[in-house]
Specification:
The complex is a heterodimer. Chain A is an all-beta fold. Helices cover 0% and strands 50% of the residues of chain A. Chain A starts with a strand and ends with a strand. Classes of the chains: A mainly beta, B mainly beta.
């Protein structure tokens, strides 16, 4: 199975800060990686697919990059609404897997 | 509006069974792979199973194969998850979700609100 390791597990940043989350895959997944945002009590929401493509309706402050085994999600200017946990997800090979999550807190 | 609505969760004793349902609307249900994802309390999402748009192929988390069965009825825009021999560790919110591209396994762009399954004596 492909393991996805996210770092950090928790981060605290101020409104307006640039935030970067990393996801590392245990083997190559090309660019078959998605990022999701999950607020407490809600279902996950797709932000980025195919590593770098912005899902319709998602603010442009979110961006994704990477390929092969190293990926990043960047929030260019953190907003209060971004308080959530973020998960990466690979859909290159079954069983599909999710990362352990990064909880973003606002200072 | 494109949406998915799950139902069928509840409290069940260990060893019991439940059948979850998910109804899709606002899109061509029969053209999308569909997926079940679960999330135990305080944990991250865990992929459970998916099913090809025409029902001809499925994939499962290895540890669930043999106990869980995914199926669909495209005439009713419905997805199902039959769960047998339930264990305490199956306690989770179960989400139904859609693959964002037609007839391909891709990122999950539409999610239901989830249905809670609690396995406890």
């Amino acid at each position: 199975d492909i393991q996805l390791t996210q770092s950090p597990s928790t981060l605290s940043a101020s409104v307006g800060d640039r935030v970067t989350i990393t996801c590392r895959a245990s083997q190559s997944i090309s660019n078959w990686l998605a990022w999701y945002q999950q607020r407490p009590g809600e279902a996950p929401r797709l932000l980025i697919y195919r590593a770098s493509r912005l899902q319709s309706g998602v603010p442009s402050r979110f961006s994704g990059s990477g390929s092969d085994t190293e990926f990043t999600l960047t929030i260019s200017s953190l907003q209060p609404d971004d308080l959530a946990t973020y998960y990466c997800h690979q859909y290159s090979k079954h069983p599909l897997t999710f990362g352990g999550g990064t909880k973003v807190k606002i200072k | 509006e494109v949406q998915l609505v799950e139902s069928g969760g509840g409290l069940v004793q260990p060893g019991g069974s439940l059948r979850l349902s998910c109804v899709g609307s606002g899109f061509n249900f029969s053209s999308h792979w569909m997926t079940w994802v679960r999330q135990a309390p305080g944990k991250g999402p865990e992929w459970v199973a998916n099913l090809k748009h025409d029902g001809s192929a499925s994939n499962y988390l290895d540890s669930l194969r043999g106990r869980f069965t995914i199926s669909r009825d495209n005439a009713e825009n419905s997805l199902f998850l039959q769960m047998n021999d339930l264990r305490v560790e199956d306690t989770a919110v179960y989400f139904c979700s859609r693959s964002r591209e037609l007839r391909l396994v891709r990122a999950l762009d539409i999610w239901g609100q989830g249905t809670m399954v609690t396995v406890s004596s």
